[in-house]
Structures are given as structure tokens and as C-alpha cells.
Amino acid sequence: MEVYFVRHGRTDGNDAFRHQHHHTALNELGKIQATNIAKFLKKRQPTYLITSTYRRSIETAREIGRECTLIPETHPAFEELHRPEFLVGERILGKVTIAYLLRWFFGVKSASMHDGETYADFTRRLAEARRHLESLPENARVIVVSHAVFINFFLEHMCRPQEMSLWRAGIRIIKILLIRNTGIIHVRFSPAKAKKGCGWRVIHGTE
Question: Where do transmembrane segments lie in this chain (predicted)?
């Protein structure tokens, strides 16, 4: 099975480098990006299209679906990391964010702040997303429209169920910051290899 993880198109929140609501829409550049990436993905002849329930992902997926003649399946397991409400509007690399992420990574229970999710919660949801993909036909070609943190944590945990070391977390944060809007990461799943160990592997990074 071929899986193409696609980060959603650009938003004003991305331009401002701030945390955003789930209902943030694509801006004009984001709409252009969605149109362009849809034409590129059409050449891959996708058979399934899955998207996060967030508006920016749905708008990106709709454009892809229009070009590829696919109806997007919205699925909550593919949503971005659920952040607490107080982070909305805060700078991605600001003091408030950094303090929160340290508490979140080290498992401080209050880090969820009631309306966010803990690292343990997130890894359980990543496993749910992985199982959903693995349930699709072996010859499926799947596009998944999601978010920078979700995509990177999925890649990190698709063969490693345990939590990351601080060193690996630092590397992964850099990758989160580097994945561009509508960037693609091509991943392959082999049921045969899954019987012997991990059936997942990255084929190509951001295209």
C-alpha cells in the first residue's frame, strides 16, 4: 500500500507562525497550493482520500478530491495534536509554547489543560490512525491530508510504539518546522513485512 501524507495548504496562522483554531481556513496562497498539489497527486492515481476534520485540511482535500475524482473521508484519528485553548494565538516558538511542550513531553498530567491531549493520548490516536490505514486493501494508493505535528509523530511512531527520547524529539521538532504546506511524504506499508516486524517505511521525504 502506498500512502502519501500531505500537509494542508497555507493559512494566515501559518504566515503568523502562531497556533490556530481547528476552523482556520486556507488563505489565497493555500488555495493555490491545494490546486497545484492536486494536479501533482492525480498522476499517482490515488484510490483513497482521507483527511483530518480540521477546516484547512478539508479544504485542501476537497481540491484534491475534485481533481482526482475522489470523495474525502474525514476521520478524527488524523487530526492535529489537540492543543489547549490557551495556546491559540501564541507564537509557535514563544515562551508559552516552549514551557507547555516541555511539560507535555515529560508527561505532566496538567499539560493537557482539560481541552488538550497528553503524549499518551496522542500516541493512542496515532495507533488508531495506523490501524485504519492497515485495514485498507494491500494495493491501495492513499492520500492523507493532515498536519505537520501529526504527520511527523506518525512517522516517528509507526515502527516505535514507545515514547521518544529527548534527542529524537529535538530532531523531530526540526522536521516539523521544515515540512512546508502541501509538502508530501511518501510511505509504504507491506502486510508481508508486518508479519515479521514493522511493515512501514518511508520511501521519499518532502516532494
Answer: none
| Distance from C-alpha of 173 to C-alpha of 177, rounded to nearest angstrom | 6
Which cell is 26 given? 486556507
**DSSP-assigned states of every residue in 34-62:** HHHHHHHHHTT--SEEEE-SSHHHHHHHH
**CB-based burial of residue 185 (10 Å sphere; 0-12 exposed, 13-18 middle, 19+ buried)?**
buried
Question: What pLDDT, in 10s, does the model give residues 148-191?
Answer: 999 999 999 999 888 888 899 999 999 999 999 999 999 999 99
Question: pTM of the entire structure?
Answer: 0.94
Give the number of residues written for the chain.
Answer: 207
Confidence of residue 54 (pLDDT cuts 50, 70, 90): very high
The amino acid occupying position 170 is G
Distance CA 118, CA 124 (A): 10
Query: pLDDT, tens digit, for every residue of 26-48?
Result: 999 999 999 999 999 999 999 99
* Domain limits for position 37: 2-204
Read off the CATH number of the domain in which 80 is found. 3.40.50.1240
Which runs of E-coded beta strand occur in the chain?
A: 2-7, 48-51, 73-74, 141-146, 184-189, 200-204
